[in-house]
Specification:
The structure is a homodimer of 340-residue chains. With 340 residues, the first copy, chain A, is an alpha/beta fold. In chain A, 46% of the residues lie in helices and 16% in strands. In chain A, the strands form two sheets. The first copy, chain A, has a seven-stranded mixed β-sheet, with helices on both faces. The longest helix of chain A is centred in the last third of the chain and has 27 residues. At the A-B interface, α8 and α9 of A face α8 and α9 of B.
Chain lengths: 340, 340
């Protein structure tokens, strides 16, 4: 199975992105990668790394979409960019099953929506990042930021998208789904979530009701549904607090001579393991769910290991039939024909 | 100055709440406290603690509002409750300057709105909890959960309420204000925040623009404005993540013999200091801003130290002229007469 990897437009230079592809190829014999970007830059890098060219292809693209390009129009203006040529190839060619990019989020989402196109019946595709949980697992947040203004029906659909994704990614049958709200009781919420709640509880999914943000990372749920504004706030609060906590720990350790010794001699390993377990980049990127093929958006600052994880993740969920699962989910919830 | 303290309806028993009052009285010579609740229970506790009765008064109230009472109607049904009699006394008596309760949030907010009443021009009073920041200070989040469905004008007013509060509480002139959004750029946001942004930037306040939730606790801002749904998500995500982080640290320490030794011998102190610095209960409760007198809601599980902090905080902001500052703020932003 062949995955398209956008080599340009990320914070890291092309050789780091390519390293990610090579690491993924080393780990999975079934995998092939099509690198999208300027051949004149990519080829020398591959040669310098003695890459196995039988597993690789280059989709030559001379332009690059950067964060300075208007995300909603870049796909029209820069048709020769690595992002757009990669997405266009994904759309046109049956042998390409997925696309991975660490480029501009807005450009990836808009490009995917207009080029790869929405699955019939999907009102709004959504981003679905994974977050680490207290029990050592992951929870999928959908929408993680693609749609800042939502209707109740969008939220109901996000449950189907997230459910299909977790089934495909982790093999969990009927993943448990919670609606992010201001309390666990059925009646808690704002107008939007109360409306979504009423739809969700009638749907053929494993809906567990409302969940307070405090318990979002408890590990009790597989999927958290919310609008993209709330999803962004939740995601970024988690990141910000984790950073603040690390900083405070360091400050407190530095402030004490005894603690400094204790850290240096005894605890460095424990903290390294902690950092690893909280590093959600290890799990890959966030799929953009609801378009006709697998599209994964990685963090802009992704290193080779995160790119590797995203490429492997893309292949896994494509192979597990993510798109078919979404179509089945839409059909069973009678959403398959009401696109708007 | 006399502060009313609701002795009943909290998770902790009356003697713990009363301990909070006595600790506050010990710290502030100007302070008087009116304890609201059943005299037959309160008086024996005061006697057993040899309390200085010259600083204390009891507002006798035989009923208690619990979390089982419907929050929006409790103020009508249980007129003899400690919460409602306390609020009614606050409204009726000029010598009472503030009210503190760790009882049912919904009942406190509804009771305060209907009994103490909104300041003229205030559309929606809001909760304003404080959160610890990376720089060792605090940031005020308004609305922290009182209004889950907001109009853009409410958000604009929240900036005035939060600004007046931080001025009164910390003596900061023209506190810096950020609007919680999905990015720092002016154009980022959903319909609600874009509308609020347009109003905020024309107002005579120190508006710094949009702020991503990731930087909410950075310490760069004094006040964060958002609707009550987003505020609740932000607040609870921070709490949940801090808890998850603590848990993970403990797990990682326990998993390693070396780390366990290091913790026991060297690091216990550093962790205790960390816990203290992150304990926002130490700063008191969340004021309910926009009603005619100072009303503070403490966490339901508040211990004596948190009650003490809230009583002192109530007196401080009443003395600093919180209500007058809010009225001035509304006037200068031409909000003083458009109540709805």
């Amino acid at each position: 199975m062949k995955v398209v990897l956008d080599v340009f437009g990320a914070d890291e230079p092309p050789n780091i992105i390519i390293d990610g592809a090579l690491l993924a190829l080393k780990e999975d014999n079934e995998l092939f990668v099509a690198l999208s970007g300027d051949q004149d830059i990519i080829l020398p890098i591959l040669k310098s790394k003695n890459a196995d060219m039988s597993k690789l292809e280059i989709i030559d693209a001379k332009e690059v979409i950067t964060n300075d390009d208007a995300p909603t129009t870049a796909f029209k203006v820069k048709k020769e960019s690595s992002l757009i040529k990669g997405l266009q190839s994904l759309k046109d060619r049956d042998d390409l099953v997925a696309f991975v990019s660490a480029g501009s989020t807005g450009a990836v989402l808009t490009g995917a929506t207009f080029i790869v196109k929405r699955i019939e019946g999907v009102m709004r595709p959504a981003l679905a990042p994974l977050l680490p949980t207290a029990t050592g697992g992951q929870v999928c947040l959908v929408d993680g930021g693609a749609n800042v203004d939502c209707k109740k029906e969008y939220l109901a659909q996000f449950a189907i998208l997230g459910s299909a994704y977790i089934e495909a990614a982790n093999g969990i049958k009927k993943p448990s789904i919670g609606l992010v709200s201001v309390g666990a009781e059925d009646k808690k919420g704002n107008e939007l979530t109360k409306g979504a709640f009423a739809i969700l509880k009638e749907m053929p999914i494993n809906f567990k009701g409302n969940v307070e943000a405090r318990y979002a990372l408890s590990g009790d749920l597989d999927v958290l549904v919310c609008d993209g504004f709330v999803g962004n706030v939740l995601l970024k609060s988690v990141e910000g607090t984790a950073k603040l906590f690390s900083l405070k720990i360091k400050q407190n350790i530095k402030a004490s001579f005894m603690a400094k010794i204790g850290y240096a001699i005894f605890m460095r390993g424990a903290f390294k393991r902690l950092k690893n377990s909280m590093d959600y980049q290890k799990h890959g990127g966030a799929p953009f769910l609801g378009v006709e093929k697998v599209v994964i958006k990685c963090h802009g600052s992704s290193k080779a290991s995160a790119i590797k994880a995203a490429v492997l993740q893309a292949k896994t969920i494509a192979k597990a039939g993510l798109i078919e699962k979404i179509k089945e989910g839409l059909k069973s919830a009678n959403f398959a024909e009401n696109s708007n």
